[in-house]
Amino acid sequence: MQVDWSRGSRALRVVAIGVLSLFVVSGCSLGPMDSGEELDAQEQTPDVTEGVAQEADTTRTQDARLTASCLSNSAVTGPVGCNLDGRLEVFARGGNGALWHTWQVSPGGGWSGWHSLGGSITSNPTVGRNHDGRLEVFARGGDGALWHTWQVSPGGGWSGWHSLGGYITAKPAVGLNHDGRLEVFARGGDGALWHTWQTSPGGAWSGWSSRGGYITSDPVAGRNHDGRLEVFARGGDGALWHTWQTSPGGAWSGWHSLGGNITSTPAVGLNHDGRLEVFARGGDGALWHTWQTSPGGAWSGWHSLGGYITGLRVPAHDNGSEGHLEDLASNALHR
């Protein structure tokens, strides 16, 4: 399904693909690997979970536009990362529970084979980019803690796996603070939102701290035009709830409801003019969205984009000069 529509001066596009949304895979549950030295990546065709090969092929049809976009926005997060030189890199959980990755061999060019980074993870991965351009990947381990691995130099080799502790029950989300510090968010065993952050750009990590609330989906993080992070999740009442930094890298607001009745993890995108926009599946199975009416400002009501979807993902970046958001939704049935 492809839908084009306009609101004001900006056009948006929704693309529905196959059974699985782009880069989203499911896999088996295994424990984390021991911390260790840098891994030797072996080129193989991994026993990745169903849909990964199709999704990677879909990515390759879009890679030139995505590469241009990621070069203009270092806050790109999700299962696809943008290297300092503009090469995209895709991460997925394999059927053996390990983290696998494939990357462009040149910006906008061909792709490598699949390589294993080891580990045993029990959530889909998410990747952030450090202030110096090094990618860092986060996932839940078999012990329920947050584990991470990172490039030891921009575009270079990878560290072993290391634990950041905590006990999380969902896929983590990562945001990039205004000063270059990564911050990770996850749902804890108590249903609240918990977070941990780098105490300096690329440096050590804080302990875990609770942001309270009660959420029933994975959290997703966006960054406002002024650098303030904002986190969204489904609440126990089925509505979309959010909390945000009151200043870039600073204190957090309480939780506030944006209403609606959603039945999926939300997805957040950044429009070309700096306004955040959130998408989710509604109780009727259609795609619904709400958006900031001005950058960092108030929110619209909910509006339906129709269709019937089973999942979605919005790449967490704008698409350069095009000014489009692209929503990648999986369809069981669509019109």
Automatic annotation (TrEMBL):
| Matching InterPro entries | PLL-like_beta-prop
CDD domains, per database record: PLL_lectin (cd22954)
Superkingdom of the source species? Bacteria
The record's SUPFAM superfamilies line, in alphabetical order, gives:
Fucose-specific lectin
Give one Pfam hit by family name. Answer: DUF8189
**PROSITE patterns listed in its UniProt record:** PROKAR_LIPOPROTEIN (PS51257)
**Annotated PLL-like beta propeller domain residues:** 74-220
- What Gene3D superfamilies does this protein map onto? Fucose-specific lectin (2.120.10.70)
The family database entries (PANTHER family) matched by this protein are listed as: ANK_REP_REGION DOMAIN-CONTAINING PROTEIN, SKICH DOMAIN-CONTAINING PROTEIN
Its name, as the record gives it, is PLL-like beta propeller domain-containing protein
Organism name: Archangium gephyra
User: What is the taxonomic lineage of the source species?
Assistant: Bacteria, Pseudomonadati, Myxococcota, Myxococcia, Myxococcales
